[in-house]
Amino acid sequence: MFKKMRSIKNRVLVIVLSALICTLGLTSCTNQNLIAEANQGQVSSSSSIAKTNISVEYDSDDENSSWSSSDASNIVLNGNSITSDGTGATVNGSKVTITASGTYCISGTLSDGQIIIDTEDKEAVRLVFNGVNITSSSSAPVYVKDAKKTVILLADGTENNITDGTSYILEDSESDEPNATIFSKSDLTINGSGALTVNANYNHAIYSKDELKIMSGNITVNSVADGIKGKDFVAIKNGTINIYSDGDGIQSNNDEDAQKGFIAISDGTINITSGKDAVQAETSVLVSGGTLNVTSGGGSANGVKKASGQMGGMGGVFDKNSIQKNDISDTDSVTKADPGSAPAGTAAAGESTASSASTDSDGTESTKGIKAAVDITIDGGTVNIDSADDSIHSNGSLSINGGTFKISSGDDGIHSDSTLEINGGDIAIAKSYEGIESSVITLNEGNIQITASDDGINVAGGNDGSSENGRSGQDEFSASGDCYLNINGGYILVDAGGDGLDSNGSINMTNGTVLVNGPENSGNGALDYNGSFVMTGGYLLAAGSSGMAQATSDSSTQYSVIANFDSELPADTIVYIETSDGKDILTFAPSKKYQSVVLCSPELKKDSTYNIYYGGTSTGTNKDGLYTGGTYSGGTKFQSFTVSDIVTSVGTAAGNMGMGGGMDKGGFPGGTDDAGRSPRGMRDQQNSSSSQSTEAAE
Q1: Are 393 and 370 in contact (CB under 8 A)?
Q2: Which residues form the signal peptide (predicted)?
Q3: Which pLDDT tens digit goes with each residue over 365-380?
């Protein structure tokens, strides 16, 4: 993996700490009554195997939003004509060409014409939009052919509107340029406190072939293709941005330079409703602050129904025409080129191929929330995503270090092909097919709540298949000994229709709190792993069906018990465990019906005897079904057990558990195959042999 290094003055810096492989130490563990203490205890050491630096330089031209009318040349738009009092601008009918650097104050209405910047000067061109309405029926209304840098300054208190037609007479048909309402072949910056509305009826709305920086302003984009696009990068420092696009919302697509093609968001409020990906980068995405509200592909309700039948949604194809544009200006009064009889070099709306980046390898449109081909780092901010496909997706590594997240996904909530690390933040995945998925997942800290129709947390090797056209009923990742789920801290709550924690390799837990409300069907388990589940610290509680139930491995250092009841117990039925002298160990009411419960807690002591009850009531404080304090009463005694091994099995169903967890696999119903795999593990491998669609964030 490469490193991006740039000399800078002001830096927006991210360090993506990929793949942390935890080094497990043997330590004492915590119990239910000491969960807070557990979270402050041992943290496994880890080493970073890769990092990527993204930096953006903001110079004085970018930062300066002040201007003086006495220092500016005036360009006045008068319907079909233009007047200019400066020497650096040449007027030809309804077109004005700026050929020198400097500040130009533009005001008025241009019904069908262009502002063209074409200068070889080494200084920036500053365009002050001082209340403009510019329309062009046949090309980009604002076209930067050549300039060191162009700065669009939105004058305080003004409203500015830029609108194009549905067909262009292209200056360069081979490169399909220009192909945006505001189109620049060089660096472009937007600043100021005024308002800008861009209506793109032909292709993209705002597009720079080099760097695109948004410093401030109130910007609204309505686009039939991509909304805001910077080939080398898009950097948003602040502002209020509303994007309604049939294509991607924000895109950077440089695939020729590994140091470019990224998107960096520092602050501001960004609202995106997109037909394809909301935020899509050829290399990396950094979010360090601000508020990002996203709906992509019609939202999670438009996610394609999975073959397993577990995932709902409309199951249809998203109609991009249903995107509600924000008051697109009427250009009917403008004489437009007729696409049916256009001259050579004329392209109609939709003919451009410049917005093909958000297409998956199987040819389907990508409708993710945030997507990057190399890495994603989120250090802070507020991120709200409702996506038809994955909400946050990296084809490489992904790191969340802070922030507040509300996610609803038609496929995966958070997905990374290679490594995924969470070091903090409040993450609520309210809807997903699979909640969190990667080859290696490391959870160091954070408050994580997951609702998934299939697996809550899935660790497997390979590349994710798109949700488009459904899933095979199991994830397309393959079984692999190189797959790990490492839990070193945090509070993790999982509600899964499939497996709660699923690893095609192994699970290591050293600290933190994990609560799992697992499957009601017998074909899945609250815990499912192919290697081992080594627990040396923390607090684990997992409830679900008994058909595929697993406990932790006997190579753990903390004692656990797996209790299998004679029959299913209804949702919200309390399971209660106490010591032989009546001390509370566990009071838990799973949110769904269950028949098996796994508890791994330091309250479980070797050679000690415990009693298990079900039913009854508690006067304690209930958080996520787990009661603390209060008094338990009215339950039915199930069994007593004595802790003799690292894993103790209790209940009649334990007869189907092989060695009842005494073996390193933690016990499988019906035993294992010759390779020590569970029946689920064998199904996973069989699934992985089927054809897989490898997704490319182009």
Answers
A1: yes
A2: 1-28
A3: 899 999 999 999 999 9
